[in-house]
Amino acid sequence: xxxxxxxxxxxxxxxxxxxxxxxxxxxxxxxxxxxxxxxxxxxxxxxxxxxxxxxxxxxxxxxxxxxxxxxxxxxxxxxxxxxxxxxxxxxxxxxxxxxxxxxxxxxxxxxxxxxxxxxxxxxxxxxxxxxxxxxxxxxxxxxxxxxxxxxxxxxxxxxxxxxxxxxxxxxxxxxxxxxxxxxxxxxxxxxxxxxxxxxxxxxxxxxxxxxxxxxxxxxxxxxxxxxxxxxxxxxxxxxxxxxxxxxxx
Length: 249
Prior knowledge:
Blueprint: H1 4-15, H2 24-34, H3 36-54, H4 64-74, E1 84-91, E2 94-101, E3 104-110, H5 116-127, E4 131-133, H6 138-150, H7 165-174, E5 183-184, H8 185-191, H9 198-206, E6 219-220, H10 233-243
Helix pairs in contact: 1-9, 2-3, 8-9
């Protein structure tokens, strides 16, 4: 799992860190203290590094590289235990997959013709949680009915706790964009206090597990071009048109 905070840090390094920024080591250690996914990776690979340092020099015939690769390939992701219930619902833009925990939504995916099992596996990889088949509760149908009438949603009904702090901040900034309007990736980066991280913001939008409710379709490039969308430019344009957006001439 790639950490968007780290990607943002790389963007800042490429473009030059501001003079008042902490040192690279300080920035990394500060991030590590607050990022559980990176803590997991650090803990896992710190142990691997220590074990390697204790090994005797291998014989020329010993394929140590192959053994290391096999060990890393065998390492399993640490899944959280609370499952996500996955169902589907018909909407004005077609069938939509919805993953929920209790009464909060953790995943939305537009149907692109994939088998249900492929969708389930993708949700598991993205959220690092087990996914089970679920019913379609009435509150969920009501929620989508209201959304396609108002193009707004109460953020209290969504759950992005499985994402990194950087991802959460970027998506929450996108949720501030009014229906029928657009903002740039740079605007999102500026809004969350990471003005040099526009590229990393783009990656967050590309991996958004809750499109529609966290409206990445309202985020465009600096020229106002739609730029990209996980479900195709045509769908991005369609959503904006449904909201009442008028492109600049």
